[in-house]
Each structure stands twice: as C-alpha cells, then as structure tokens.
Amino acid sequence: MNERDREYSREELKAHILYKLARRRIWGGKHLPIIYVRSGIPQKHLSQLDEIAKELINEGFLIHAPKTREIHISLNPRMRKGIIELIEKYIGKIYW
Prior knowledge:
By secondary structure, the chain is α+β, with helices and mostly antiparallel strands. The chain has one domain (3-90): Winged helix-like DNA-binding domain superfamily/Winged helix DNA-binding domain (Arc Repressor Mutant, subunit A, Orthogonal Bundle). The protein is built from 3 helices and 3 strands; from the N terminus they run αβαββα. A hairpin with a 4-residue loop joins strand 2 (62-66) and strand 3 (71-75).
C-alpha cells in the first residue's frame, strides 16, 4: 500500500499539524495561516483539517489568532510537554 493511500487516524493528523508548527518554531506570539500546514496531508484528509485544528484549539494545544478570514494558529507554549509527547507518540521522531 502506498503511503498516500493509507488511512490516517485523527490523532495522527493532529500530531502532523503540531509537528509542522513545532518544526517552524511557531510558538505563542508567532502565528501562521492554517493553509501552510496543509502540505504533506493526503488529499482525502484535507477536508478534515479545519475541524481538527478547531479540536486542537479547544483542547488547548493551539492558540487561535484572529486575522482576516483565515484561521491563524500557533502552538500554546503552556502545553509544550503535551505537544511533544503527542508528536513523539504518533510521529515517532522529532527534530528540535
């Protein structure tokens, strides 16, 4: 089975979003439009991206920065330990 055809769980997609932001060091005051997190996510899962980002905001992992019409997000520095644990659990590697 091709990696692109594989089904990803919601938790794996959450970890992917957190990992992309962590790699770019988007913590606290820095924020990024959610559209930049889309790369690397298979096409069939893109429709879930905004919903998953809202879940991460509600869980406290992400901070929502209200800008224009797009969703801008950053990692919550107070949840750093939980973010790192989630990334390591579902991605299995980490580059800091």
